[in-house]
Amino acid sequence: MDQDTKTPPAFAVEHLTVRYPSERGWVQAIRDVSLQVERGKLVGLAGESGSGKSTLVLAATRVIRPPQVAVDGQSFINGRSILNLRDAELRKMRWSTFSFVTQSAMNALNPVMRLRDQMRDTIRAHDRSYQPSVADARAREVMDMVELPSSKLLSYPHQLSGGQRQRAVIALALLLRPDLIVMDEPTTALDVVVQREIIDLIRRLQNDQGFAVVLITHDLSLLLEVAHHVIVLYGGRVMEAGPAEQLVENPLHPYSQALMHSFPPLHGAVSAQVGIPGAPPDMVSPPPGCPFAPRCDRVMGICRTTMPLLQTVGQVDVACHLMNDQNREVKTL
Ligand code: SF4
Q1: Are 52 and 61 in contact (CB under 8 A)?
Q2: Is position 114 within any domain?
Q3: Domain enclosing residue 280, as ranges
């Protein structure tokens, strides 16, 4: 991150490495990952389950922390170093500077509290001059933003449909006007029609309010529709990162290409979906070279021994030996 710029990015990660203990040894979940999310931008993290998407963000925001994980590197929110922050300072920043929308709304909402009371509690925890009437006015505002009637503030979570609950979680995330919202698979538990509504809502809110979003999903085709920038992770490493339209038109990494072919396109002609053979690597003892080598149909000798470094090709960064000059011929085969 450029520390000299006047306005730091909403979120930045520098050379982050995350390991967590397991019965079989240390799981190398994230390996030397760097990224930036500017204000007003929606950056997507894509990859299969186990690629490290959620671990990356949860460790960088200290939702998971030692001794659950060992973390090296740095993370910043609005230029403040999160990994070095005192607990009390971090508590102040949660919900007010950055907030979360989780996959399962039922896990995010307290099942025995009305929505209004959950919102009052959140505001009270951050505002010394808390007044219920002011808190309720803000609660009505955010309900309006997510297109839920304010009468639903008196509902318990189980009285709402799945889509309404997910809107309520988004409303809660917006409550204290954060600069960054992390959305972890926010549509996975929903049917396709409601998924579409929620994605449209996120896009509109992000445009109107100008907060930064990190959107985590395994569905690359969905991400390419809403994200400004996409980062494809595999084996805890960045495989490809660049503007979303670039990845739609011309994904360069074999893993990005395989991911693209494994989901039906949201627009255009229906095409056959092809699964990616094999399984993600065992991160207790990941392959010494490219983590995708055991599944890649263009694997070369060097791929099995040497980790490809990220290199810039046009507008994107790609970690693949096919991008090396001497292998370009192989790439075009
Ligand atoms: Fe495939 Fe080799 Fe590129 Fe890895 S480095 S994606 S194994 S071609």
Answers
A1: no
A2: no
A3: 11-97+178-330
